[in-house]
Recover the amino acids of this structure.
């Protein structure tokens, strides 16, 4: 009973931390966009929303002052959280810590820094918010950035299984890359389009991290 209670408490803390991270990012976006979310919910939740906006404002300032560390830490936390959630959905008796670590590493070391560079590049390569501009930026992401991060995920998955070699990675890419990209065409282009249309540059990667969280859970359901 003690071990069950301890495990449940740890799981609740883990979920609370993930929820707090999500709320911080959402609140940061609202704060950056000067959205008064208190007018959108019942007054009884006003204090909670106000607190979230305060923390979101702090996150927004940290993101503005240190964009790469903020994006990398956010990606690492959400990728790890998505993997833990996926393993829970898969009803694993024990969390595969090596797999979770590899997911966190992908976010922290690859997605965070690469997303910062990529979105700065593509927003300057194709400026504007017109329909054609948004479609071009979305298409570029699907053609270049999407396959890159997918291959990184393949490498991380092989590493977590102890099977990472150049030959194994090439074999997995040849077999699974296109099916994976095609499977995401109903989700990722729309998310990219929304991000380019509605969000400032620094908030695009955190938003897509949230999308990745949802997508990972969906694939594991």
């Amino acid at each position: 009973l003690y071990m069950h209670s301890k495990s449940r408490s740890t799981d609740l803390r883990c979920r609370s931390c993930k929820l707090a991270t999500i709320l911080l990012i959402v609140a940061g976006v609202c704060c950056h966009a000067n959205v008064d979310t208190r007018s959108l919910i019942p007054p009884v939740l006003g204090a909670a929303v106000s607190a979230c906006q305060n923390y979101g404002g702090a996150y927004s300032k940290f993101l503005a002052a240190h964009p790469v560390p903020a994006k990398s830490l956010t990606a690492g936390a959400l990728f790890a959280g998505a993997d833990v959630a996926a393993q829970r959905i898969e009803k694993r008796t024990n969390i595969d810590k090596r797999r979770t670590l590899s997911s966190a590493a992908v976010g922290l070391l690859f997605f965070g820094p690469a997303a910062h560079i990529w979105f700065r590049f593509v927003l300057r390569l194709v400026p504007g918010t017109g329909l054609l501009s948004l479609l071009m930026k979305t298409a570029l992401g699907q053609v270049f950035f999407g396959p890159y991060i997918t291959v990184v995920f393949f490498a991380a998955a092989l590493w977590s299984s102890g099977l990472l070699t150049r030959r194994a990675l090439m074999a997995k890419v040849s077999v699974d890359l296109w099916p994976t990209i095609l499977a995401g065409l109903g989700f990722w282009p729309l998310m990219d389009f929304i991000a380019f249309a509605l969000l400032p540059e620094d908030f695009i990667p955190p938003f897509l991290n949230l999308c990745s969280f949802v997508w990972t859970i969906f694939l594991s359901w």
Observations:
- The chain has a mean pLDDT of 80.
- Residues 73 and 108 are 6 Å apart (CA to CA).
